[in-house]
Amino acid sequence: MNLSEAMKERHSVRSYLDKPLEGNVLEELEKEIDKCNKESGLHIQLVKNEPKAFDSKMAHYGKFSGVKNYIALIGKKSSKLNELCGYYGEKIVLKAQMLGLNTCWVAMTYKKIPGVFTVNKDEKLTVVICIGYGAVQGSAHKSKSSNSVSNADESAPEWFKKGIEAALLAPTAMNQQKFTFELQGNKVAAKPGLAFYSKVDLGIAKCHFEIGAGKDSSVWQ
Q1: Which of 137, 163, 192, 195 could be 202's S-S partner, Cβ–Cβ 3.0 to 4.6 Å?
Q2: pLDDT at position 215, please?
Q3: Which pLDDT tens digit goes with each residue over 56-82?
Q4: Which CATH superfamily is domain 146-219 in?
Q5: Can you tell me the distance from the alpha carbon of 154 to that of 148, in angstroms, rounded to the nearest whole number?
Q6: DSSP characters over 19-47
Q7: Contact status, residue 209 vs residue 216, Cβ threshold 8 Å
Q8: Same topology for domains 3-132 and 146-219, yes or no?
Q9: What is the model's pLDDT at position 66?
Q10: Superfamily grouping for domain 3-132
């Protein structure tokens, strides 16, 4: 499975099997987390075999079950933190999909358990990502049209169109897809909309755009 296939096959999963993360799968996952931390300066941490965070009324209301592993997206406080967490968190999510794992981005429906991850004084926890072997594989979300989130038209280059198609596969809070991508010459201006966690969502969408477009971060305005 490549990254493009992972984007298409990955769906949010809230119910997990009682199967531990171990062996080569765990090793490759931890390598990806280390790589993302080195590139970004973030302090992303994998929490294993910890069932308490998703054993609350709020989590049950959110229909989570069997969650024992999750990724805490943590970094130094800044105006770019949420977007960075979205971008690098999605890199880890797609790697997880390629490893045969399932995931779900989670903003509020979990409980912070003391001592299971470290948040330094100048850092902040943004969101977490459930991870493990899903009891189901999830289902595709409804998607907006390309022209509702971008200035793509028939004259737009193919790479931009493919980037938008990929961005529309990105998971977003409440499936709002509140982001816009505007082609300006050979560069792209990407902006978050007005919504909860929209900057995290923008980071996720930018990750997808780069994969679909075949571009690196130099594409951004």
Answers
A1: 192
A2: 96
A3: 766 666 789 999 999 999 999 999 999
A4: putative nitroreductase (tm1586), domain 2 (3.40.109.30)
A5: 14
A6: ----HHHHHHHHHHHHHHHHHH----EEE
A7: no
A8: yes
A9: 96
A10: NADH Oxidase (3.40.109.10)
